Every structure is written in C-alpha cells, then in structure tokens.
Amino acid sequence: MFDADMFAADQDPNLFRLSDNSLLLTSFAWRPVVGAQTEPLEQAIFTEKTSGVSGLFWGGFCAISRDDGDHWSPRQYLPSLPGYPEIVSGSRSWHGGRHRGQVVELKGGRLLVASYDRAPGGKAFSSYLHVSPDLGKTWHYSGTILSDPDGRIGYAEPTLFVTEDGTLLALHRTFGADDRLAISRSRDDGKTWSQAEFANVSGHPYHVVSLPNGLAVLLYGVRDIPCSIRGRLINPENGEIASEEFVIQSGATVKDIGYPTGIAIAENALLAAYYWVDSRGSRYIEGVTVQFD
After folding, report:
1. Residue 45 pLDDT exceeds 70
2. Residue 239 and residue 280: Cα distance in Å, rounded?
3. What global pTM score does this model have?
C-alpha cells in the first residue's frame, strides 16, 4: 500500500501501469484545519455537511513505484494553478487541483493528467491539463480544458481517453447540466480543446476500460435513488458512445455510492470495482465481472 501522510487524507486514488512497467499513482490530499502560525485561505477549506469536520485542500500529487508497489517515491505535488492564490501565504501554493481520472501516456513517455478546481470567488469548477515529458518524473501546467465563463456549468472529475484516430477525449462530470456527460476533444495532444459536447449519458464519474478484443467500455455511477452502476460501449475508433445502457448493480437507497473503475481480465471481460452501501447501511468495495459475447 502507498505510504500515508500522517497529516493528510488522500482522496480518489488512481493507479496506472506505464510503458516502462512502473506504477504511477495519482491522487489529491486534504489536511486538517488546526491552529497555525498563518491563517489558511478560507476558500480552500471544505467542510463535510454530515460531520462538520473541515479539511484544507493540500494539492494534487503523484508517486511512482518501480517494484509493483512494494516501495514508492515521495509524493510529488503538481505545479501551482495559474491565477489561484496561495493556500497558506508564503508557504503553500494551490498545487494542481483535485484529480480523479485516467492518465494518458503518449509516444515518447509523455504523460497527461487532468484536474479540476474552483478558483476562490468562482461559481463553477473548471478542468485543467498537466503534462509530464518524462514518465512522471517532472510535471508542468499545460492549460485549461473546459471552463464556463458565465459560471453556470461546472466541469469536474475529468478522465482522459485516446481514440484510435489519435483524438484525445476529456470526459467530465458536470454540475448545472443535469449530471450529463460533457466531452471535449483535442486533436493536438492537449494543446487546444473543443467546446463541450453534452452526451445523452447521465452519471459520474467516468472510467473507460479497453478490452483485448477491441471493445471499449464506459463505466459510471448513477445517484438517482435507487442508485446504480452502469456502463455503455464506446467506439474506440472515434469515441462515439452507444445508446444502449447496461446495469451492473442497482438498488442502493443512499446516494453515496459509485466511482467505478475497471480492468480487463480476459479477451472479452472486465472486472468493475466501486463502492456500495447495502440495505443495512454497511459500506464496502464490490467487484463484478462483466463479459461481452
């Protein structure tokens, strides 16, 4: 397991196998709001509604393992987001934004990771791109993926997927758009992006599993009671999403479920994992095998 920061709570970890066979972990961290010499930025504090516990955003980060997870490099925080203030004046920048999504590796060991955040005073989340030219050793900020200048629609939890024709897709959870999937496209490896396209898919967040037989599957959670975990085929050539939806799990009567991820386990099968709550209120991680004939 990845070493914990004794002062931080890590959220939404993601794990990827890179071309040099190393493992890349990406996540973001919170720190407890306690007495300090310098007051932190109020807009960087999140207070959980149910418990009243507050956390201070501490930044998006990555770490690398070269022995299948037995040992990990120190966590490396992403560069500061331009235009965002310091979280703690003089000592802590707004590192990278929040991250939950898939990393893309391009030719030559170039990695792309997307993040999201809401600038202090802003009305909605925007999404951003970060680039590593050397398989995660160093990172730099690349630019904005999606942002609504009017602040009506928020774009969050972007995951990245490259189609066979070389188009880079960013798949976003949305706020203010009926939880519909928003897609933006880049045909120049993330340098520039299209405006949002809203698909006829509702849920969040999104994860794409590519199977050895050539199929690609889009996984997502739906938090409309009864809540469910669902999926659709996505065309690996051009990113077109199938209209037919299939249900992997259903019936939860609380909305705090979901966040599916998955891996291929056979030519035509995947293992989908997500968190779930049963009828007694017990929360756990569940896995379901999905096979495509």
Report:
1. yes
2. 39
3. 0.94
Q: How do residues 187-222 score in pLDDT, each as one tens digit? A: 999 999 999 999 999 999 999 999 999 999 999 999
Which domains are delineated in the chain? 1-202 (2.120.10.10), 203-293 (no CATH)
Interacting residues of 67 by C-beta distance below 8 A, sequence separation 6+: none
pLDDT of res. 149: 93
What does the pLDDT read at residue 61?
96
Tell me the CA distances in angstroms from 185 to 11, 159, 169, 191, one per residue in order. 27, 12, 5, 10
Q: What is the rounded distance in angstroms from the CA atom of residue 217 to the CA atom of residue 262?
A: 9
In this structure, the dihedral spanned by the alpha carbons of residues 131, 94, 115 and 228, taken in order and rounded to 10 degrees, is: 160
pLDDT at 35: 58
Determine the length of the chain.
293
Give phi and psi for 246, each to the nearest 5.
-120, 150
**Which one, of 244, 272, 271, 270, lies nearest residue 259 by Cα?**
272
Give the separation between CA 273 and CA 169, rounded to whole angstroms: 23
Q: Is the pLDDT of residue 1 over 80?
A: no
Three-class secondary structure assignment of 220-260: EEECCCCEEEEEEEECCCCCCECCCCEEEEEEECCCCCEEE
pLDDT digits (tens, 9 = 90+) for 104-163: 999 899 999 999 999 888 999 999 999 999 999 999 999 999 999 999 999 999 999 999
Residue 258, C-beta contacts closer than 8 angstroms, at least 6 positions apart: 203, 204, 205, 220, 221, 222, 223, 227, 229, 274, 275
Q: What is the predicted pLDDT for the residue at 161?
A: 98
CA count, 13 A, side-chain hemisphere, 14:
29
Contact indicator for 265, 271 with CB cutoff of 8 Å:
yes
**What is the DSSP track for 21-76?**
S-EEEEEEEEEE----SSPBPGGGEEE-TTT--EEEEEEEEEEEESSTTSS-PPPE
